[in-house]
Design goal:
With 75 residues, the chain is of the alpha+beta class. The chain contains 3 helices and 3 strands; from the N terminus they run E-H-H-E-E-H.
Length: 75
């Protein structure tokens, strides 16, 4: 399987939705706070790694250090 890395700002809406759904579940974010997650990802603009079929995604290791303080501040 191949993987591609994209900056958050390069993702289309479907890809952004996949990322938000995945991380909302793993961070136990309430449904009504998902818009805050979009804002946090817009600010951090992390690199996101997707598999070749677009079903698996994760934040690139180098971007985790950027995202951690943003997430801790808001959630």
């Amino acid at each position: 399987m191949t993987y591609q890395t994209f900056k958050w700002s390069e993702l289309n809406e479907a890809m952004k939705g996949t990322v938000i759904s995945s991380y909302a579940a793993s961070w136990n974010v309430e449904e009504n706070r998902k818009s805050e997650m979009y804002r946090i990802f817009d600010i951090g603009n992390p690199a996101i790694i997707f598999d070749s079929i677009g079903k698996y995604c994760r934040i690139n290791t180098e971007s985790i250090n950027i995202m951690k303080p943003l997430v801790r501040t808001h959630f």
